[in-house]
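Sequence in, structure out.
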Amino acid sequence: MEDQATDRAFRIGQQKNVVVHKFVTKGTVEEKIDTMLTEKAELSRQIIPDSGEAWITEMDDKELMRLFTLSL
């Protein structure tokens, strides 16, 4: 949700710089959630190519089957 809010603050065609501040208090549940979200985003970047949401639509049938087939 935070990424969506940041994206909304900076619209396509925006001419002025946009600065987004995020306040997290140390030792709180919010800090733990922030850490978890950061780790999940990094894991996602490592697994999924940084080509946007269209990466899966560019796969052929065999690639899709390989992606969604469980390996033992």
